[in-house]
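User: Assemble these into one structure.

Assistant: Restating your components, then the assembled model:
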Amino acid sequence: MLTTITNIISTIFIITGLFFVLVGTIGLLRFPDFYTRMHATGKCDTLGEGLMLVGLMVYQGFDLISVKMLFLVIFIFVANPVATHAIARRAYKVGLEAWRLEK
Amino acid sequence: MENVFLFAGLVLIFASILSLYRVIYGPGIFNRIVAVNVIGTKTILILVLIGYIYGRPHFVDIALAYALLNVIMTIAATKGIEV
């Protein structure tokens, strides 16, 4: 009985994480400008990844592997925004101007 | 449960192929860096899922190492641009 509950919960986490990753990919393809694309992927990927890994942690139960996955989730939640900020700052410094509607 | 991991892995591979388009046609170098960063994040997930499909969840170590490399690559790429 317990395994079915954990399976259901982890499936729900994995599917929602997958949804956010897909939304990030669509944002990467559809948005008109560099800053808007990065705005989409930076957030959606981090969240989708976090959700999927939490789903796998629920499936794995209390184990050393779950602790490693927790490190992975925490690292990605910290490092991905840093990388996105580094790109945005560099792009702004280089003089990549943002997209305007009337252009 | 294996079907869920398999389905998630296949959708992730499909999504990374889609974002491969942005790597090829991205107008500038910055779009390409963001696209490579996105593909790298997806590879981490695919790695962990493959580990679970094969019943070897110890793939998390490889995914952890790859996550570190991915971030360092992105920051090194931004520092190295002389556009």
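Residues 29-53 of chain B form the longest helix (25 residues).
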